[in-house]
């Protein structure tokens, strides 16, 4: 994908009424798409109408780009994502992330539904991601032949943005621990042995997304924050055997708390 290619997508969304400036862009994970209902002055475009955009084939991901106003700020919401396990391409979300860069959006917030590998982090909890483990065996910058591919991921999850998340959580009365998110490729859930491995390596959460988007965001020079909604205990913990239906159901149950956090975070955003 070239700079010229992404300009075609930029022209398309602008022609469809999606025009900045924006204060933040937010990628909404499984079961979290109802945040779009909180927006006013809404403009919406299906991913299928935007050049280069992925086609998500996972239930719980509507596949729409939605622009609007939230807490007095202009935001760009990605209602659903494409996953590595759908495409075999870790860079499946490259075009949406590149679009964020081209539209001049300073902040990217990534959200997901995740499993907890720590028994004290219960389903329904929210967790701010402070770092990650890439255990997928892949990377979205494979086959990129520029010097830009050697991206530093020290501080990938922006410290001031994490502080803003904590401030918003405090005002909303929401407990928001920080954790390390481990990316495994999916689509099958992890085995109990793999969960024990993640625990030993220092992970707190497991999931099948987000990490490649963080890498791409840093590639494009964006500031990143990320939040997980814990939808299940990971395999083997208290006898857990996760399912996609459980993921969707618990994410929906936690969505009101999630929306309060994101609204508070957006309200707290200042110049970044």
Structure commentary:
Helix 5 (192-201) links the parallel strand 7 and strand 8. By secondary structure, this protein is of the alpha/beta class. It has one domain (3-268): Nucleoside phosphorylase domain (Rossmann fold). Helix 1 crosses helix 3 (94-102) and helix 4 (159-172) crosses helix 7 (244-268). Helices cover 31% and strands 24% of the residues.
The number of strands is 9
Largest sheet: 5 strands, mixed, barrel
Q: If you compute it from the alpha carbons, what radius of gyration comes out, rounded to the nearest whole angstrom?
A: 17 Å
Element-level helix/strand string: HEEEEHHEEHEHEHEH
Please, how many helices?
7
Tell me roughly what share of residues is in helical segments.
25-40%
Structural class, by secondary structure, is alpha/beta
| Shape summary | globular
Q: Roughly what is the average pLDDT, rounded to an integer?
A: 93
Strand content: 15-25%
CATH superfamily: Nucleoside phosphorylase domain
CATH third-tier fold name: Rossmann fold
Low-confidence sequence ranges:
none
- In spatial order, strands of the major sheet run 5-8-7-6-9
Could you give the distance between the termini?
A: 28 Å
What's the architecture, going by CATH? 3-Layer(aba) Sandwich
Number of domains: 1
What structural keywords apply?
five-stranded mixed β-barrel, Rossmann fold, alpha/beta, single chain
Task: Explain the layout of strands and helices.
Blueprint: H1 3-15, E1 24-28, E2 40-46, E3 64-70, E4 73-79, H2 84-87, H3 94-102, E5 107-116, E6 126-134, H4 159-172, E7 178-183, H5 192-201, E8 205-207, H6 211-219, E9 223-233, H7 244-268
Parallel strand pairs: 1-4, 1-5, 5-9, 6-7, 7-8
Antiparallel strand pairs: 2-3, 3-4, 5-8, 6-9
Helix pairs in contact: 1-3, 4-7
